[in-house]
Amino acid sequence: MKIFQTHLQLPQKRRGFHLITSEILRALPEISQINTGICQVFIQHTSASLTINENADPTVRLDFEMWFNKAVRENDPDYQHDYEGADDMPAHLKSSLLGASVTIPITNGRPALGTWQGIYLCEHRDYGGSRKLVVTAWGE
Hints:
By secondary structure, the protein is an alpha+beta fold. It has one domain: Sandwich (Jelly Rolls). Helix content is about 25%, strand content about 40%. The protein is built from three helices and eight strands. The chain starts with a strand and ends with a strand. It holds the Pfam family YjbQ. This is Secondary thiamine-phosphate synthase enzyme YjbQ.
């Protein structure tokens, strides 16, 4: 069994959904040493999230942002946690809806993502800052 782990800090990105698959693979090239295994990517934040979805058409990422902004509105007078700005509590809710990690099988030294799949950083804040990820891969 081989186990590899790295910490990756992504530069600040604008609010929205961003493909980060290539950054993850550059950060942990040891994945190529695993024939059969698992890769987990975990984000160490509560106002951004991760998901896997369409990697080809950028309008999918725009539609994700549009839908989440309609589903979880800012400036809701019922929010109690509002002292960090109008986007903060909605960011926490969006993050919980999508989740803090993704898990991908590794096959023949590569993530076994589908043809049209990529890993998204989902930035839910207007000014979220840089984001820290922990990338762990293990297998034979």
